[in-house]
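Input (Pantothenate synthetase):
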Amino acid sequence: MKIIHTISELQSELSVLKTQGKKVGLVPTMGALHEGHASLVKRCVKENDVAVVSVFVNPTQFNDKNDLLKYPRTPEADYKLLEANGCSIVFAPSVEEMYPEPDTRQFNFAPLDSVMEGAFRPGHFNGVAQIVSKLFDAVKPHRAYFGEKDFQQLAIIREMVKQLQFNIEIIGCPIVREEDGLALSSRNARLSAEEREIALKISQTLFKSRTFAADHSVSETIHFVENEIAAEKGLRLEYFKIVDGDTLQDLKDWADTDYAVGCITVFCGEVRLIDNIKYKGI
Ligand code: PAF
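Output:
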């Protein structure tokens, strides 16, 4: 496994491999890797000749400076996990390498980016699009892999690929959960043992809501989730929405779509956790 820090070195390495006809897959990450990332890397390794994993904590997608400062950074453990999972190239650039000048590009992914994370984290998806488009330009992969835990991010990246006409296949991979149901997240490392117990209520509520939804309306299901989360003192709900999985707009009636997803963001202490669940569809 090669660890590369500059775009020029990365591109000269990849151009040799591409002229040999090798298919290149990319897994963009911000490090602090866990088994969720490992599942993306494994799939990338399986489906491509060369698996590139980028490790870069992207400052432009953090609207909260404190969140950026506290974002876990574990490069040595990350490299071990990547090596063990068959990664060929780690791309770990500096901020100066990715942003030699401020990126002033403004994307418009309306209406996908005006709801949920887009509404609560202004500028977040613009920053995601800035870095992911730069990574796509640098690597020019055949395929790129993203987790479905960041459900809205995945929809926006698909839209960005359309708008910027990247010839890249975007592959969404299922959420990986702890045995007890908690969705894996780099932010889980910031939970105390007590908070970790409390956070479990998020996925448990989503699972219960799927049973509840079978004979209740969309709005009743939303209230069910809101009440369950409100009943747990250590949690503070930021939002829970049931949306059409393609448009990300609020769903009024189950019959209005064949792809319904519930998306939740909850603060557990200071840690902001997101999760989602499918009620209808793939
Ligand atoms: O999902 C993430 O970890 C980040 O948003 C991404 C896609 C690596 C861009 O920085």
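The chain is about 40% helix and 20% strand.
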